[in-house]
């Protein structure tokens, strides 16, 4: 295990990214645990208020830690212990910020509402992308090119452009998750681009405007997909985010 860790993480210079991911996930889980305890009135933790009784959300220290970690990492370069320390600081800040992503998005305290589920979704998506990066995946399929193709500038640029177009099509078709993951795994973007667009997406409004059969098929496919997966996704979000606990009180 130690040899594998050195060969795949330390030697390629991925240790700061590994530490940032670990502190990001750990901070998110600890924060969710504390907020659930505060909501339930258990433990020693309490909400923090500033001058005038204003509730200070943890996104505030999260922004500070993200700025310190980011600028610190840029300033210290890649050698020594400092990049690892700042990577941990950055991961902690990112965990605090993205835990309240839904509040930033809606500019409202939706932490325990259905809209607050977006925070859990963004955290899971971010952690997944970082893990793919740690595993060696490069943006837009660069990792799939041979050494000869990398040296051939035309082939290199063409590969980037084609894969980027697949990502854009998937995004326009309302396949946000597939588009994001597809930036690192082009096959996912290709699947998202080739499948029917989700109802209400930009692609569906433009391409299916005069094609009622295509609109009907797209709506039926989206219905069956959501029926199959939404329940499992919501159960996972309930376990991680504590939304079910909130609804039961």
TrEMBL record:
This is Integral membrane protein. The chain crosses the membrane at residues 15-35, 56-74, 80-107, 119-142, 154-172, 179-197. The keyword Transmembrane applies. It comes from Streptomyces solicathayae. Keywords: Membrane, Transmembrane, Transmembrane helix.
